[in-house]
Amino acid sequence: MGWYLRKSIGFGPFRVNLSKSGIGYSFGVRGARIGANSRGTYVRMGRGSVYYQKYLHTNSGRQQSQPVPFQPQPAADQELADVIQTANASSLQDSSATELLNELTVHYRKQRIAPIVLVLTGLLIGFGMLGSAPAWLEFSFLAVGTVAHAVATRADYRRKVVHLNYSLEPDAARAFAALLKGIEQLRYMGGLWRISSQEMNADTKYHAGAQYSINRKRISASFEPPRFVVTDIAVLMLDTGPQRLYFLPDRILSYEGDAIGAIQYRSLSCTVQPSTFVENETVPSDAEIVGRTWRYTNKSGGPDRRFANNPEIPLVRYAEIRVHSSGGLNYVMQASNAQRAGIFAQAVAEYGTHLVHVSQSVLQS
After folding, report:
1. Which range of residues forms the domain containing residue 31?
2. Could you report the per-residue pLDDT of 326-343, keeping only the tens digit for each?
3. Is the residue at 253 inside a domain?
4. 231, 167 in Cβ contact below 8 A?
5. Which of 170, 166, 130 is nearest to 14 (CA)?
């Protein structure tokens, strides 16, 4: 059974909300508050059972971690508790992108004014309540603070935004469009996960016959540029959990917290191989079921009759995608559709080859 924590702590006009999704805080009086939580900054007004709430700024959601599934046919040379690590974004450096990375990092790390305005508004409301200020004055503080916060949010964006404009020749535009079409296959997957570690099972009969257990987390792909970046091209983002990878025409940008790195396409390697998986969760609609097993198996692979609760579990054919670069990028992903995974890997390889040929042509000319 899932559990959650939700607790509200009040300090006069200040209120701190503790919940499973994170910590939120708000300022104001009954019926009129301005605050922030994991979804963004909001203003709420009303009385009785009727309230109006509007988010002034929202934060993008994150995928939830999935329970531990099992993989019956891994590579033979894997070791116990093999953690799949990738380099931090700050260490993924591209010498040709030093100036760009510096500019992006400086703008991205600029201090935001909007949270400061929010705190000052709360202090004004708090001091007003302590000084027994009239209700109209408290509402005035709230209204002015709300407007000031909106203005500060827009000013923050203008201070932090970076414009990236590309002028692509027809051949380059077609090649980049083919890359995006290939990467877009990840968006159509019924299931896409990042494998963070895998561990050998000491006794396979208690793990549906699987030799290895893996830890995985759902990931997603979408069309969106990096935050505070405005560009004239379509940018596909792969959210892997620890990092967000943005595929641009000349390189891949990696965001991790406030660190930004870059990866060259020609240093990228992408391979795909089929794998059979014991799926304890719902089987994606685009996956192929190739057999059945049981939660507890005997030596011959059949169901162990000693266990009363021994459900049948599907064996599914998935694809394992390995992406790594010479700079330290290292991801192992599991995809529900092997055909789409192959299209993705081929598109990445062909685009890297295209950029190599372009570089050679420039050097020869």
Report:
1. 6-61+112-160
2. 888 899 999 999 999 999
3. yes
4. no
5. 130
